[in-house]
Automatic annotation (TrEMBL):
<keyword id="KW-0560">Oxidoreductase</keyword>
<comment type="similarity">
    <text>Belongs to the NADH dehydrogenase family.</text>
</comment>
<keyword id="KW-0274">FAD</keyword>
<protein>
    <submittedName>
        <fullName>FAD-dependent oxidoreductase</fullName>
    </submittedName>
</protein>
<dbReference type="InterPro" id="IPR023753">
    <property type="entry name" value="FAD/NAD-binding_dom"/>
</dbReference>
<dbReference type="Pfam" id="PF07992">
    <property type="entry name" value="Pyr_redox_2"/>
</dbReference>
<keyword id="KW-0285">Flavoprotein</keyword>
<feature type="domain" description="FAD/NAD(P)-binding">
    <location>
        <begin position="4"/>
        <end position="278"/>
    </location>
</feature>
<dbReference type="InterPro" id="IPR036188">
    <property type="entry name" value="FAD/NAD-bd_sf"/>
</dbReference>
<dbReference type="InterPro" id="IPR051169">
    <property type="entry name" value="NADH-Q_oxidoreductase"/>
</dbReference>
């Protein structure tokens, strides 16, 4: 009898598993991808789309085409719960899928439960991105909550879009710490001055305490006017693992081993933002790690099926990030090193377009 593998979510690592299956098929196994959308949108190019440098088709992968080409079945649904003991996956519409092996790469969400979703735009799940950003970039005073890499990038890109089209008003950004707080003071100062020079108003060390239709209240009782709110306050786990009584960290991400397996269930694998490696609990939630996990996940699925010892994944010590800062310029970050130029943006554009070509 053929084994059944279910891939839940079309995150970076699963895209690679699907692609590799067309090069060296996993064997006598039927593979299903479950995804709530026909497309996977690539966050590395969100800033370029926002600014107007890329079209929608440039930043998304057609999952029906990819799975069809690679011998994988596609199911357009959202998974809601897994019952490991019964080896069954439940979807939001009540459909149930039995499996022999399962892997999760379903990303994260970003809006904390205390705020009502209708008041806030979110770029997660990522297939909502284009609709949300198209609306917010046209509005007069959009407010970005969160001063991490994603928040800074999108604030700069929305401002660049407005500047290029002479749309009145400025972008605002509010962050509980300083901007790019995980980088050095020098880098954080650099991005702050780039934000301010482009016309973005920055509030640092202020937390959002309440959200109203056209303003927010901060922890210092400041009222900041907005015409739309984009929440990028850091990733939170999707509820599926908690609902399934699996071991999760304080943000709801499922714990996995270095072999990318769930701790209690060796037939369950995971990769990307939705999981936390027990050996590296503080690793950033970032696409660069999810990408590197792809080939290891594929190899380990292959080895598991063939009863061979599994490989360990070890995250790179330093990761390269290039933030698009508007006007085809990029801020390259590598450890303590940072560099701002057109060349940095060109490199980012090359890395991102090459990534997309692999799956088109
Ligand atoms: C604006 C922005 C810019 C960024 N830029 C970068 C960057 O330049 N470099 C970088 O390394 N990181 C970047 N990141 C972070 C990066 O987006 C994430 O770390 C990365 O996308 C995580 O990849 P993943 O493989 O975990 O899943 P994702 O890419 O998030 O994909 C998960 C998929 O699973 C689907 N899914 C969700 N729930 C379910 C469900 N219940 N059932 C089935 N499918 C489901 C989703 O719809 C989605 O298609 C950026 C983030 C943002 C917001």
């Amino acid at each position: 009898m053929r084994l059944r593998l279910i891939l839940v979510g079309a995150g970076h690592a699963h895209l690679e598993v699907i692609r590799l299956n067309s090069v060296m098929p996993l064997g006598n196994i039927e593979i299903y991808l479950i995804s709530p959308s026909d497309y996977q949108y690539y966050s590395g190019m969100f800033s370029g789309y926002t600014e107007g440098l890329y079209d929608e088709d440039d930043i998304r992968i057609n999952l029906r085409e990819l799975t069809n080409k690679c011998g994988v079945n596609f199911i357009k649904k959202s998974a809601s719960r897994v019952f490991p003991e019964r080896k069954k996956l439940f979807c939001e519409d009540g459909a149930v899928y039995p499996f022999d092996l399962i892997s999760f790469d379903l990303g994260s969400k970003s809006i904390p439960p205390e705020f009502v979703h209708s008041q806030v735009c979110s770029v997660k799940p990522n297939f909502q991105f284009v609709e949300q950003i198209n609306e917010i970039r046209e509005s007069s005073t959009p407010l970005v909550v969160g001063g991490g890499a994603a928040g800074c990038e999108l604030a700069l890109s929305i401002q660049a879009y407005k500047n290029n089209r002479e749309i009145k008003g400025d972008v605002r950004i509010v962050t509980a710490d300083k901007v790019l707080s995980s980088s050095s003071n020098k880098t954080s100062g650099k991005i702050k001055s780039l934000l301010e020079r482009s016309g973005v108003q920055v509030w640092e060390n202020e937390r959002v305490s309440d959200i109203y239709d056209d303003y927010i209240e901060t922890s210092f009782n400041n009222h900041i006017h907005h015409s739309g709110l984009l929440w990028l306050g850091g990733p939170i786990g999707e509820p599926i693992f908690q609902l399934s009584n699996l071991a999760v960290d304080e943000k709801g991400f499922a714990f996995i081993t270095d072999a990318l397996q769930f701790e209690k269930y060796s037939f369950m694998f995971g990769a990307g933002d939705c999981v936390t490696l027990r050996s590296y609990p503080n690793l950033d939630k970032s696409g660069v790690y999810a990408v590197r996990q792809g080939p290891i996940l594929f190899e380990n699925l292959h080895r598991y099926i063939n009863n061979q010892p599994l490989q360990s994944y070890e995250p790179q010590k330093k990761a390269l990030y290039i933030l698009s800062t508007g006007g085809e310029k990029g801020l390259l970050l590598y450890g303590k090193f940072s560099h701002h130029s057109h060349q940095a943006w060109k490199l980012k554009n090359k890395i991102d377009t090459n990534f997309m070509k692999k799956y088109k």
